[in-house]
Exoribonuclease R (Bosea lupini), 461 residues
Amino acid sequence: MKTLIDSTNALIDGLAAIRLQFSVADQFPAEILAAAEAAAGRLPTEHADRTDRRFVTLDPATSTDLDQAFAIERSGGDLLLHYAIADVAWFVDDGDAVDQEAWRRGTTIYLPDGKAGLYPPILTEGAASLLPAVSRPAVIFTTRVDADGNVHLDGAERAVIRSTAKLAYDSVDAADLPPDFDELSRRIDAAESRRGAARVDPPEQEVSALGDGRYQLTFRPRLRSEEQNAALSLASNLAIADALLAARTGLFRVMPEPDEKAVQRLRHTAQALGLTWPEMEPLAQFEKTLNLSDSRHAAFTLAVRRASGGASYVPYREGVVPWHAPMAASYVHATAPLRRLADRYVVRAALAVANGQPVPPAVSSAFERLPQVMARADARDGQIDRAVIDLAEALMLKGSEGTLFKAVVTDADEHGLRIQLCDLPVVARVRGQGGTPGDRIQVKLIAADPLRHTITFERAG
């Protein structure tokens, strides 16, 4: 969930400034903590016993806020994905103190030096987290995945589960996973290819020390286990989206394709990074050729993320098909309720729909209010992510003032030029006119201030 790793703690002062600038709430008020502690003691009384099913979790090694656990079984030629999601709604009531605080926060904020949770740790890292070897209330969504990767929500139930293992991306062994884990992710990947989906999951960047107070930014390629685990969440979210659409309700995650101007800007970015993008090849097709172990390709995926029109949430509207262009499908967020406010309500709606029950009025009402709340949280999170990257880039460039860099102009407006450095994954602005997209120019680094997370370039003659 972090965009950048800082194992050197080189960013600590700058991160403190970012937390202050964006009013990141590190602590919860005493009354919220007390309410959460009381809620954590609730015993599950409306849940089936599924502790005999072998669920496991797969996350970063240090994660303790575990939203999802999974089990897989065969059903003829189909695979059944039993995806257990933390039953946050069991602990948080509509309108209670914890709920009101969550509506103020919207999401968990992740920074390289820690996180600011959506809910108090006694819930997210304790009573509601699907930790191993303890019984936990969950909502199990069973998704049927056929041989072609098509998904269908077979059912949902509240149940108590007992995860048998907390597996980590960087150390998981195939023997630890359900036998059909690879096959299920293969099917989902194949279905994505047929749909023409173009999910962009940029790798994390990492600050590493070079010595003498110098640092560099490198990319940490996503592990295969991360990609496969993401396929499980994707399958569940797609199946839930279809079920909610059929029931004419829900809250959907939508995202447009990059517009023509953004695609042209990306072509200039590819040029700057030395990537060959055939003129007639669509962006989605070009993305499939990228190798994220190559830092130039990884930098391009970051540019794609920045170039998109931005994702948002929309409630169901009669006659409108909510569309997520990178997924090439209707899509919801339901699998991370410990970290996103909206997911708690989508889970509740899907649980009701799957069991032939009406969606609770409080959930339907929330669907109308959540888009604005989540948009505000998404905007804040995006600004923080950008500030963190700016901080790391400024740290990397500090001490190189006066150095000339090759760059390509990716965009031009009344404020000046937007540039992509050719040899570093840095996007910056240069004041002044006299350039058009696609121009190759030289720029001089004037200043790099990590505390203000700013970089200043000027065009060199």
